[in-house]
Design goal:
Layout: H1 3-20, H2 29-41, H3 51-57, H4 72-88, H5 92-98, H6 101-117
């Protein structure tokens, strides 16, 4: 992970950890779009996206604990797919938040960045 990306992931984790926590309360559409915009601004979404890759890794969203061992690329792949699906089916991102997937991805980003600083 590049040092610049390292700083962004830690800052995003700190900023959004409480918003992404599991729970039945809905996250505002504005806050979710702000999160998605920051993912894009911080180069955490893939520009070269392949739906076949998503299909082969989509099992990771079945159980958030699977994400604890995901690679940086796998995390970016999941987020990219979810943000693209959100454009056509609003609520996908909030469903992923409620199931713990978004928080697990951000925790994994944070974990990867902390490993690189150690």
């Amino acid at each position: 992970m590049e040092p610049l990306l390292l700083n962004h992931t830690s800052a995003l984790y700190a900023k959004y950890v409480s918003d992404l926590a599991c729970g039945e309360r809905a996250l505002s559409v504005f806050k979710m779009h702000e999160f998605i915009d920051e993912l894009a601004e911080n180069s955490l979404l893939l520009t070269d996206f392949n739906w076949d890759d998503w299909y082969h890794n989509s099992h990771l969203v079945d159980r958030p604990e699977y994400i604890a061992d995901a690679s940086l690329h796998e995390c970016q792949l999941l987020l990219t797919a979810m943000t693209r699906l959100e454009q056509f089916s609003p609520g996908v991102m909030d469903n992923m938040r409620r199931s713990g997937v978004l928080l697990a991805i951000m925790e994994r980003f944070n974990s990867l960045s902390l490993k690189l600083t150690a």
